[in-house]
Write the structure tokens for this entry.
Amino acid sequence: MDELLQARLQNVSDLDLAILVSLTSDQHCIFYSVSDAAKDLRDELHLSCTETFGLQTAVIDCSRTTVDEFSEAILVANDDSFKDAPEHRGSTHNLRLPTNPYPSRGHSPARSGSANITLDDRRIADVIIATNLDLAGPNVQVQALELLRTKRIFTRTAMHTASKDFLFVVVASKPDARLTHHLNDMFGISHFHEAEDGFPHVEGTMDKYATPAFSRDEIKSLHSQADEARLTAEVDAYLHNIVVFMRQSRYVKGGITATATRHLRAVAKALAPLHGLDYVPPSLVTLAVKKVYPHRVILTTAETERTLLWGSDPAAVKEMLRGVTVEDVIEEVIGSVDTPL
């Protein structure tokens, strides 16, 4: 990595860095904060994507949206010149939903004649920031799942596609919010933002009209370097052992999926070029574990703890589990696995 890029990495906020890791690893991300800071977190991420990375962004509140409204809100004009036009780098999709996005049956283009038919060539925004997706109905979450799986979406008039580096960001409604199981498993990274860490874009401590700190070419270069980062047999075994220990932990009921293991490997390799390395040391594996698993791990309860099957005292099990958090479990697992020299 060149020294200039390394210097810029030292000056970005934690949210900018989380977005950069997501883009480099090609993984979608969930952001958490205290409930009172959710709006500022959404606005900060919005400004980060547009001002720091120059990406066209759509923002949608999913708490009361329908499938049709969701599909319409994530679309932007198919402006081919956006990527190469600096004056458009701050452009964002209008956050307000149209009051009547679909024409009435009496005035549909098909009934008005071919002269009024226009091609709907809109595309999915580079970045979608979905707030309160955990509060959305199951149909909306299924639509989001299909979008992440296929990178395309169908409206009533056309099929719309996303770019190869498409990023889906969720701002959860509260720190312990959960998406549906399969949708949650599509997100490779999670990040908790402390309100006291501030929101530099929202608070105006960053130059609003500055050139984006990271160009698309730089992000592509980081992505290529991440793909080429070396993972030795010893470090690969270390990564595998952490996954095994996580699955076997008596505190864990579930969430340690095969998809999570793939995400762990991708994030660990993505962290290498961001630290100026062309290989993955054990320390980056442990850092990746702390980003990949917090939103996935499902803690066991006093009723489902596995040693009850062999006669453990329920009262003792309940006392053992009291106060145990996901972060505690992750730290306990990392400490249990021998680190390669």
Remarks:
- The chain has two domains: 3-100+116-224, 229-336.
